[in-house]
From TrEMBL:
<dbReference type="GO" id="GO:0051607">
    <property type="term" value="P:defense response to virus"/>
</dbReference>
<comment type="similarity">
    <text>Belongs to the DEAD box helicase family.</text>
</comment>
<keyword id="KW-0378">Hydrolase</keyword>
<dbReference type="InterPro" id="IPR038257">
    <property type="entry name" value="CRISPR-assoc_Cas3_HD_sf"/>
</dbReference>
<dbReference type="GO" id="GO:0003724">
    <property type="term" value="F:RNA helicase activity"/>
</dbReference>
<feature type="region of interest" description="Disordered">
    <location>
        <begin position="559"/>
        <end position="579"/>
    </location>
</feature>
<dbReference type="InterPro" id="IPR014001">
    <property type="entry name" value="Helicase_ATP-bd"/>
</dbReference>
<comment type="similarity">
    <text>In the N-terminal section; belongs to the CRISPR-associated nuclease Cas3-HD family.</text>
</comment>
<keyword id="KW-0347">Helicase</keyword>
<feature type="domain" description="Helicase ATP-binding">
    <location>
        <begin position="21"/>
        <end position="206"/>
    </location>
</feature>
<dbReference type="InterPro" id="IPR054712">
    <property type="entry name" value="Cas3-like_dom"/>
</dbReference>
<keyword id="KW-0540">Nuclease</keyword>
<dbReference type="Pfam" id="PF18019">
    <property type="entry name" value="Cas3_HD"/>
</dbReference>
<dbReference type="GO" id="GO:0005829">
    <property type="term" value="C:cytosol"/>
</dbReference>
<dbReference type="Pfam" id="PF22590">
    <property type="entry name" value="Cas3-like_C_2"/>
</dbReference>
<dbReference type="InterPro" id="IPR050079">
    <property type="entry name" value="DEAD_box_RNA_helicase"/>
</dbReference>
<keyword id="KW-0479">Metal-binding</keyword>
Length: 795
């Protein structure tokens, strides 16, 4: 198909705008500056699909990554992409030949499942998520997901990936981070090509001028509408849509903001009801979730059943209901009033006849104006826009100076017609900027013994917009399963602090996952971004129509359906070794080497590195021959009579007699003792050690480890100095009995050469974080694939 036919089939008969066709048929730009309402999401998604599926364009990465500022926009993008793919007959599961899969990356146990998107790096797919979920993964600190999966998501998002950043005026401190990451990929080199595309209807390219990306600004290519396109009838209908603009009689002042802004909300309810037109949709956009919730509650009292609340602090099942309601176009005789926060100002396909908006930064106001008479459908009967002034001191989450500049612009206007609005000339706000040294330091994912990880939140969202995540269980306990993403709800740090303070009388108010012990423990620390906390449903704080509202809602929270995926997230856990069917160790080593060779061929990895990855696969589980591991593998009735063989997998489910025992450390030590002088030995050693994400950059004993009786005997991760591996059959060689040594724990040069820390830092300098994580991921995926096939073929 040519692109005209391709686009029409995908969009159910719509023809592409000329700029959409140029995007599909020419080289990718770096920046796209196109007015709202002209199909930017379709433009990029269908151009990517056309280049990958029709043109087989090798310069187009195989993963399309949509990074969006709001969760509601992420879900809308997912739904649209799936619909286009269905029309084209291309929608499928990960790895299905000739098909493209779509994945919404959120927090929760779905992300830890080996059967999901991350297992198919050679497949075309669309990944969609908020900047919180995607940028935290790109910084090796993925919010709401297993820390042991961080390196995999990091590698897949930085290699063979086309990042698209939409509505960048809403990204805050996340925007300079996107520019810095692009600069790092260019300077540190990736294993597979990756690139970025920034787009917005209110885009100022100077916002991308960070310390490391500034040298690239002049060379950025920009896609814009041509003069002919701007004058076309279809574009003019949108650019010249009638939007009379006036200042609302109600304003937020120091006086009416008291007592939770009760007086302000009462005035606003009256103003909205007066302006609302029967049979139509009105939209009210407020700057905080708390005010939006309060307005919705008062509207529900005044006109029951006519209001809809949209914000970012709902669970998935409630968001699905809200999104379905937003898609409706018939509102009944009385019409509908949508109350929303910034969650609706970007990209959400909604049009209202009447719109109220609180004063916001100019770029945000332009976006909000785009939700009124969006397609010019009210040009004849009349639309109405009202902006609500905010007195100095009432600007949060914005600052007074930013709103002062916006006020000067909007006060001089009597129309918000898109083609007549002033350009966006605001300077980028001052934010934390990720530097190269700090970024490379994030490659170390070892658990911090104090319970804290490096806080990457300043590089992801502005301080006033930071969130944690919560979910509810009826009987919180240490052995509760990991949360499914459908259970999770975002909560602002301030709200969560108030929740904890109000419920102190109940004793334990929240539980946090401890990845060392593999259980939920009472949380008594300070709330911080990225936390995932389990709350007691009996303590209230959430309503299905209002969302997270901890101070007002006392009734028990309806608990979402729990789903335990069986993932073993303990540091010392060996969940993947517990399988229904036992597998002999030597056979498993052979299977993983075979899968590694097939996978490196599929992703076209260079021969020398591909061979080292295959050898790492061949050696990755040699340490399972250790007596500690083998006793665990045969410690159940099904395996009691099979202790004469070495097992890689077994149905026995007990824990190792040594807490935190890591077989991959024993494998790495054995490799270096037998092959440490070979070229590439350190890379192979690292890939062997890192294949579960639990032994990567440091070797140290962990709290509560079982120690040898001899205090001079070194130990780490359950492996003791002078432990002996029995002879092991490795494909192509038979290892004699091996005495394990832990000289690598010591700083500097030792009997085994440089320390482990020095070896890994040399590898990081040689290969860079993107390549090293990519190689690490390929070994892990080969192990996953081999393990899955072993259970299939033997059954």
């Amino acid at each position: 198909m040519n692109y005209q036919e391709f686009f029409e089939r995908a969009s159910d008969g719509m023809s592409p705008f000329p700029y959409q066709a140029r995007l599909a048929e020419q080289a990718w730009p770096d920046v796209m500056n196109v007015p709202t309402g002209l199909g930017k999401t379709a433009a990029v998604t269908l151009a990517w699909l056309y280049k990958r599926q029709q043109l087989r364009d090798e310069a187009t990465p195989r993963r399309l990554v949509w990074c969006l500022p709001m969760r509601v926009l992420a879900e809308q993008t997912r739904d649209a992409a799936e619909q286009w793919l269905e029309h084209l007959g291309l929608l499928g599961a990960p790895g299905e030949p000739g098909r493209v899969s779509v994945h919404l990356l959120m927090g929760g146990s779905d992300d830890a499942s080996a059967a999901r998107w991350a297992e198919q790096p050679e497949s075309d797919m669309i990944l969609i998520g908020t900047q919180d979920m995607l940028l935290s993964r790109a910084l090796m600190r993925g919010y709401g997901m297993s820390r042991f999966q961080w390196p995999i998501h990091f590698s897949l998002l930085h290699n063979d990936a086309l990042w698209v950043f939409d509505e960048i005026q809403l990204m805050g401190s996340g925007l300079p981070t996107t520019a810095q990451l692009e600069a790092f990929r260019r300077s540190l080199s990736t294993a597979k090509g990756a690139r970025s595309l920034w787009m917005s209807a209110t885009l100022n390219p100077d916002w991308l001028g960070t310390v490391d990306f500034r040298p690239h600004l002049e060379a950025l290519s920009v896609l814009e509408l041509s003069e002919e396109e701007r004058n076309s009838a279809a574009v003019q209908q949108r650019r010249e849509s009638s939007k009379p603009l006036a200042r609302a009689e109600v304003a937020l002042t120091r006086d009416n903001a008291k007592s939770g802004a009760a007086a302000y909300i009462k005035e606003l309810v009256e103003a909205v009801q007066t302006a609302h037109q029967p049979g139509t949709q009105s939209l009210v956009i407020l700057n905080t979730v708390e005010r939006a919730q309060a307005l919705y509650e008062q509207l529900e009292k005044a006109c029951p059943g006519r209001a809809l609340l949209v914000h970012s602090r709902f669970r998935q099942q409630e968001r699905a209901r809200i999104n379905a309601a937003l898609a409706e176009t018939e509102f009944g005789d009385e019409g509908r009033i949508v109350v929303a926060t910034q969650a609706i100002e970007a990209g959400v396909d909604i049009s209202s006849r009447t719109l109220f908006t609180e004063l916001a930064p100019w770029a945000s106001l332009v976006q909000r104006f785009g939700r009124c008479n969006r397609y010019g459908e009210w040009n004849d009967t009349g639309a109405a826009l009202y902006w609500i002034d905010l007195e100095a001191g009432q600007s949060s989450p914005y600052d007074d100076e930013t709103l002062r500049a916006a006020r000067e612009k909007v006060a001089a206007l009597d129309s918000a017609t898109p083609g007549q609005l002033p350009v966006t000339d605001e300077e980028a706000p001052l934010t934390s900027v990720l530097r190269r040294r700090d970024f490379i330091a994030l490659f170390n994912t070892d658990p911090d013994l104090s319970g804290f990880d490096v806080d990457v939140s300043p590089y992801i969202r502005d301080a006033d917009d930071l969130d944690a995540q919560v979910f509810w269980r009826q009987q919180p306990s240490a052995d509760q399963p990991q949360p499914h993403r459908d259970e999770i709800c975002r909560a602002s740090l301030s709200q969560l602090k108030r929740y904890m303070e109000k419920r102190k009388k109940h004793g334990v108010t929240a539980w946090q996952w401890d990845s060392l012990d593999g259980q939920w423990k009472p949380f008594h620390g300070n709330v911080r971004p990225g936390l995932v906390l389990m709350l007691d449903a009996a303590h209230g704080g959430y309503d299905e129509a209002v969302g997270f509202r901890p101070e007002q809602i006392k009734k028990p929270v309806p608990v979402a359906a729990e789903r335990d995926d069986g993932t073993d997230e303990r540091f010392g856990g060996d969940g993947p070794s517990r399988q229904s069917l036992p597998v002999v160790l030597s056979e498993h080593l052979s299977h993983v080497e075979r899968e590694a060779r097939a996978l490196t061929s599929a992703v076209a990895l260079e021969d020398e590195v591909a061979d080292r990855i295959a050898r790492a696969g061949r050696w990755h589980d040699v340490g399972k021959a250790h007596d500690v591991f083998q006793r665990t593998m045969t410690a159940c009735d099904q395996m009691a009579e099979n202790s004469d063989r070495q097992w890689a997998k077994s149905p026995c489910s007990g824990r190792h007699e040594r807490p935190y025992f890591r077989h991959e450390l024993a494998s790495m030590l054995a490799w270096l003792l037998h092959h440490g002088d070979e070229p590439g030995a350190d890379l192979i050693a690292y890939l062997v050690a890192a294949h579960h994400g639990k032994v990567r950059m440091s070797l140290r004993a962990l709290p509560d480890e079982k120690s040898p009786e001899n205090p001079d005997r070194r130990y780490a991760r359950g492996v003791w100095e002078d432990d002996r591996l029995p002879p092991v059959e490795v494909p192509g060689e038979t290892l004699p009995e091996t005495r394990l040594r832990l000289d690598l724990m010591e700083m500097g040069e030792g009997a085994m050469g440089p320390s482990w820390s020095e070896r890994v830092h040399r590898l990081l300098d040689e290969h860079g974080p993107f390549r090293l994580a990519w190689y690490e991921t390929l070994v892990r995926l080969a192990d996953w694939r081999a393990s899955g096939k072993e259970q299939e073929t033997e059954s």
